[in-house]
Amino acid sequence: MEVKIGVRHAPRELVIDTSESAEDVEAKVSKAVADGTHLALTDTRGRRLLVPAAGIAYVEMGAGVSGQVGFRS
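and the corresponding structure tokens:
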């Protein structure tokens, strides 16, 4: 699943492909924001992404587009 995270005061969003379910990601985001800690996600290659909860502007979850090559409009 593809997760896009908008970060406050950053011109680009963070994009991560993860094998976690939408419910798991939503629970992690909610817990991080409620606790005021950080959001920790692991991508499909085993790399970890840490984002301070105070800096999260939005989180978009959805199925990634597989096999797409070239420019999009």
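(Above: one complete record from the training split.) DSSP finds one helix and five strands in the chain.
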